[in-house]
Amino acid sequence: MSNRLLHLARSATPDGATTVVVNDWPADGSRPDPAPDLPPDVRLVTLVGGGGGRLGRWLRQRTRPLRVLAALRRAGIRTDQLVGCYLPLGLWTLTTWAVLRMALRCPLTVDVVERHDPEQFPHGRLAPYFIRHRWSALVAGRTADRVIVISETLERHFLRHGRQTMVVPPQVDCAGYGNPAPPPPRDGLRLLYAGSAGPKDLLGVVLAGIRLLPPADRARVRLVIAGISRDQATVASDLDEPALAELGDQVTFLGRLPRQRVLEELARAHFSVLVRPTAGYARAGFPSKVPESLAAGCPVLLNHTSDLARHIVDGREGIVLAGPHAEDVRDGLARALALDETRWWRMSRHARERARSFDYRSWRPAVSGFVTDAGRGAGAVNSANPARSAARRR
What we know:
alpha/beta
């Protein structure tokens, strides 16, 4: 989410403007670097406060919009300098909307990146998180001036409510990626899954597909899983211990990694792998793993969900699976194992070319024009959980 909002803020910042990000101290009690490595067009303002137990947290959540406005004043930013405001759906409440609507004279934009299904939660429609999520979407669909969404499925939903809506997929900074350097494909196929998995990504199906390969081909496949440990995977994802035991050292868990290490793993992989079910939440979302893999020159092995068919052509930027089943993964892996070095490098080059369409720079004219009032210039306010808001000045 932080990566999403950073690039969205930068794409909404015209040349010569500045985005001011107003952010709470991290909820885990840690403190950010006093001089974080931020791009020159982003300024960070950190909200003071913390502690106080459950009551203190409740009060901070309810007074967040007032604390954001106070932080802007302390930073010397007048509300009449703001020409746009945007927040993620998780922070869009009636209170926040009412306070910002009274205090700011600029468009209020909400960023929506997912739409949950009841089937994702043990208690279905009665799950508190599901209720909060759908309530926030309902409020945003009737109060936000503009809506940024991550997929065309979400776009259709908010257009039905008469909202000005723009689709912005996950963005990347292509300049931040090095050159790919995997071993020759003839030495074996190196797959990478990077993320937190959970039920949304079918890692168990990937393992099942590997196990369906003929023994000689199966021995040539290595899967690296970054972001979760082996213990976490068997509890929070669809992986099971017998399948892992059968593949032995062909599956490696790296646990939680810093971003730079993830980029290094992408550079060493032949394919990043992503298999998702054809459920409503998969159609509504857009996996940020895909643009990041493309920017690293790492082709993708996946099935089409969301808007991926618009960006990933089978045999060009990656290998598209026929579906989210083990047999589909097996067939895709067989095709990947048959690639020679020349064809893989051609696919890697096409991946990097496609990544340019996700670079935040190419979205600047459209996004900055959307989130601001054209009659007043360009600017925005951005916010991310636990309480991140940003304002942009002329």
